[in-house]
């Protein structure tokens, strides 16, 4: 125990702690800057590369981080005009939206049933859901390819809409259970006394309160969907039906030739909006995990 | 108790409806109704394919000859005879273990940065999320150029710093390090990119754990005299251990079954130095057309995952403090 | 010399928009139990945290044992704090919790455990040392928190509403234990609460706070009998002091001093107060009589507290001649609520 003895000593202590405090602040900023740099450096560099001329890029002696020749927008334009990039983005978007919708429609009631309607088998079910998560796409893609063909959805983007929820639903149910458990029972019981049925209470009282959790699930599910590529690669070959994660590599890589600048442009154009949206909802996502992961 | 019509009339004048309980109120039925769609969906599109995969693994189905013939465990035998299988298995474990250690450590550091308070936090958060939110193929392709054997910007920086490209330089006299061509470097590169990609997600999950610690505990520790290190290692980390374990589990499962980075960066090469089970299964099953083999290799993962998951979940339950 | 002294303490939050502590001067007396009392948001907890070092003041100084400690972190101040939630480390045993602060200063193991056992025995929890916090009752947890505070032999104990998590029945006995504990030790203690009953029961002196300022600092009897303003008058006492508006003043009298004429001792200078009864509550042997008074000032709704010894029959709807002993009347300025000199009625 530091007993304060004299006035001079107290003053020295104060100065020392003030210095430590400043050092700590500097440390935090330094760490933050370093982390941000390590994570984002490839993207920052991508943004420069996207505008580089070929002769500038394919020269091992040139500084890769600056424009040694004037910047050009040719390659970015190439991306939009001569490839199906727009189609890919559009496909990714509508597939994402539909998959998220399906996930919520199937997952939210299921999560509610497991979180609230105390059935004795609820615990087992939750474990079973986790086990489903353990079965990876890398195992299932072979048999699912068969099923997709049998259903007649081979080479159609709709096959992805059908299959992607298998990835998003288990995790979403797990997250939502955590969220729903955090909502006090009083609210639904009040709604039921006020005249609503169980379903009515669920829809009117619980769902609005679970909104943060739902948002978290939406964001997470969309990210997973946009990033998935194994199924996309296995099920869909026609260019016009592809999504961004398979379309961009295959369109812009012909054999050994990589259209690097366009590729980098595509990467940046896709990554930044998703990261922006994710950042907006990060707080809610964290709240969802707190209740699902630690207590679920 | 039977409700007569007369009862109903008297009740209704008082505003009470004694109608038969509708479905919307019957909890047990409702529970099933709410669950059924998800259950049916999962059964149809996960359970059935899983069984099918097992079936394939025990068959001789190929892309050329799709007729189904039961061959017992022959696919497994053939897989076990192939040295590439064992190489892949070893690589998978190595890849997962090293990646997970790095991801947990860096993720924890990053999580602490994310909960700290400082100006420009939003921008930092945004930049830090980029590796995770980018579709994996795109991010990996960006790295492909960064690790190119001729034009790699990293090599350029190293050359400028004098660490490369001159006789007697620290990293050798060659003008480039063959990040994806030299077996050990290739494994290192694949691990690095994978860690780069997953660390933000791990950090976000761990932030959830950090945020859940009641503020009182940290303050009490400060008043009790604990400095930064003691608070971190005796209060913060023990209390976030369950969340760290969950993040690690998620990450390990993800990594164990992932082939994205390998596929884009090295395609398993050079000479299967970075081949992992999943990419090998894809190679045999789709590229090679041997569906039976592919299924057998991929199936090998499942029991391992199951055992690991159960072990970690048990540990987490025991760690849970009230 | 005061153990804790606050000089012109100001604490602002939210870039100056919120003034939680608005210029507080306070000095504790040696070994006293000082209670910081006030409603939520009055700044009492912020004040306590500033003494602990968990908050830094915007301006002003904190002195402990005569030395200015403003700017020093908590661990350099030799204070101990018990939080409302007790903040017990859930993953450590009771023993682990108690020795934690001693490990922070590098005390040797045998020495630590000796001290921990001493503290545990003092608080009667020696038999719980191997348990984990989640296995303890509320009262036991409080005692562990106190033991942990005790082992540091601090200059001052800081307690932040430690009884509010206990159920009502337990609170009274816990209050008793706390006071006995403190008196046995003789250490200066600063205690924060919003419950005026607790404050009156525990405090050697009470500082009544509102809006970040100390309204009155004094012994319980002083704060009760001679409130410095209407806020203190209405905050202390249950039911609170009655206030009747009259000519730019507020005339105040406590419910127990509003009694039927005949119940007052003969000869005492009195003020007659016609009282129309509205309803009567029977609480713990007393009668709480609600009604309206006139004649003293504006017509106001007041409460009279008749002890069991006063048996005058009272019925709702009737009017009676009640009175207050003139010496018991307190006068306040109607504008600013401050206490004024007695006014002739």
Quick structural summary:
The complex is a heterotrimer of chains A (296), B (322) and C (345). Chain A is mainly α and 296 residues long. Chain A contains 15 helices and 2 strands.
How would you describe this structure in keywords?
heterotrimer; A: 296 residues; mainly alpha; MetI-like fold; 2 domains; two-stranded antiparallel ribbon; C: 345 residues; alpha+beta; Rossmann fold; OB fold (Dihydrolipoamide Acetyltransferase, E2P); 6-stranded mixed β-sheet; 5-stranded antiparallel β-sheet; 19 strands
Rg of chain A, rounded, reads 26 Å
Distance between the termini of chain B: 45 Å
CATH architecture call of the largest domain in chain A: Orthogonal Bundle
Describe the sheet with the most strands of chain B. Answer: none
Q: Number of helix segments of chain A?
A: 15
Gap between N and C termini of chain A, in Å?
A: 41 Å
Q: Figure out the total of helices of chain B.
A: 14
> According to CATH, what is the class of the largest domain in chain A?
Mainly Alpha
Order of helices and strands of chain B: HHHHHHHHHHHHHH
Secondary-structure element string of chain A: HHHHHHHHHHHHHEEHH
Output the structural class of chain A. mainly alpha
By CATH, the topology of the domain at 85-288 and 300-319 in chain B is MetI-like fold
Name the strands of the widest sheet of chain A in spatial order.
1-2
- CATH C-level class of the domain at 85-288 and 300-319 in chain B is Mainly Alpha
| Proportion in helices of chain A | over 70%
Tell me, briefly, the overall form of chain A. Answer: flat
Would you report the number of β strands of chain A? 2
By DSSP, the count of extended strands of chain B is 0
User: How confident overall, as mean pLDDT of chain A?
Assistant: 81
Supply the CATH superfamily name of the largest domain in chain A: MetI-like
